[in-house]
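Action item from last week, closing it out:
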Amino acid sequence: MPAHYDVIVLGAGPAGEGAAMRASKLGKSVVVVDDKKSVGGSCAHLGTIPSKSLRQSVRQIMRFNTNPLFRTIGEPRFVSFASIMQHANDVVQQQVSLRSSFYSRNRVAVFHGEAKFLDPKTVEVHSGEGVSDTFTGQEIVIATGSRPYRPDDVDFTHSRVFDSDTILSLTETPKKMVIIGAGVIGCEYASIFSGLGVRVELIDGRERLLSFLDHEISDALSYQLRDNGVLVRHSEKLKSVEYQNDWIIVNLVSGKRLKAEALLWCNGRTGNTAALDLAQAGLQANERGQLEVNEQYQTLVPHIYAAGDVVGWPALASAAYDQGRSVGSAIALPEKTYFVRDVPTGIYTIPEISCLGKNEQELTRDQVPYEVGQAFFKTLARAQITGVTAGMLKILFHRETLKILGIHCFGDQASEIVHIGQAIMSQKGEANSLEYFVNTTFNYPTMAEAYRVAALNGLHRLF
């Protein structure tokens, strides 16, 4: 006899956790099924947490190796990728322990194994060695996340070919690496490996890096990557890969041949839906393994919801958790359901990038009368104290109403700094105004002071 729950959640990443915790706190009986041995999803085990932990370690190494102050301690040092992975693994375990306590404290049952639909309300879970469990649920949430896209013409079984999941198992630091795909993940890993002294060639199929960004911010990223030794090749496409024991050769359509000790594939992701047997539930994923949902995160089968990477945009851990919470509300407290729209972009390159709202290209296209306020970090006392002066804060605002239209930040702590602007942008009416930053006292010295500097800079442009 199948065990029955009010809610079955497939996936224990941010979206699944958000849905499970919200539904449980609202009185629903919940079971979570995940294919990994512990909770946290790809976010904790393969993506956000380990990659950002790696980035932090690399930043510390870079500061030690480039800051003259540290020469009294010792000369610049080489630190291997495998060594800094230990810190990342420690953080992962802390996250897993914390998230496991959430499920226990909220009385949410957790099963580990491969799940598939038997019918629209029944799920079978295979935990290995012939062991299986069957659950029925009044509502079902698909929050299975995504995985790196793997084209058939690249041999990912070769010891020198990696994707953004398997790169975490790298045991030696290559002298040269080719990264295919210059999206967010590709740029982040280009920063990480170049910071470790690896010669990185970043292959971009487009004419500029991260073209969805404000072009001034994108240009700043390009400069910083190149300044750190990354060779960016734009408008290039992969033709083929030649494999040897000690190296690989990447052939591009343009005729270029690139020899390296490692190839990192960062070109796209696919929703984890292939093993779910969606047809038994009356569903079908698109060619990218993603599911279509409405503004209540319902799929075409109304009692089956989906959230997180499996629904596509914005495919961020922060948004996935909020989407999951909204699903939990849709199930147990419908009037509290909301669709996640205004999501800040956080890109953890070195330096990092974060933005929210419109960029200059969009405002120009839409003929919005806007003006720009800028604060360059090199002029801020706090940045001078920390020695990390590369970067800027850019505020786009309406010339007449002074309403803030966009916040764009590049530099140290950008992903933190953007939230000050986000708070003001979310205010209604006249409360959303550039004047807030002029009339508010900020601690000194702080990076937050950049808002006052940028606001004054922008107001001085008006006439």
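Closing note: The first strand starts at residue 3 and ends at 10.
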